[in-house]
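Hey, I'm writing a tutorial for new members on how sequence and structure tokens pair up, and I'd like a real worked example in the thread rather than a made-up one. If someone can provide the structure for the chain below, I'll link this post from the tutorial.
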Amino acid sequence: MDAETTWTLRPATAGDVEAVAELKAVVMKDDLVRLGRYDAHRVRQRLRDEFRPEHTSVVEVAGGFAGCVALAPYGSGEGLHLAHFYLAPEVQGRGLGTAVLRELLARTDAESVPVRLVVVQGSAARRLYEREGFTVEAEDLVDVLMVREPAPTGPRRPAAGPARRAG
């Protein structure tokens, strides 16, 4: 990606499920193998079972599929649950994840709701979440439950890196 690369979020459709399932299998493989939890069929099927297009957005870069993220009501009814945040390997490490996350957090801050997510132990994504204000709420040998309380109202800092939202 270069400084002129734009990205957008579009609502997911039921037709996106297979692309999202495949992306999850690719980006989660190393962490799941490291934890002894990788099963090629199960990782895809679990995504298919949990996929809710009404709560999912597709990340597009230059008009093409680059990732996805879901933001749905949290099970206990308090706040929102961020899940299935996957970016294609070729767009990782360039600020896109930070930009997308900040866009979503600006929305949740405007609603004054906390956001929870689960990240697997040892995942590099945990550093991104910690930079954006998430803290550990609970953890076990495989998963880390993190929470971010809404930020005080006011201007958000701009997204880091070259990725920027199309207009």
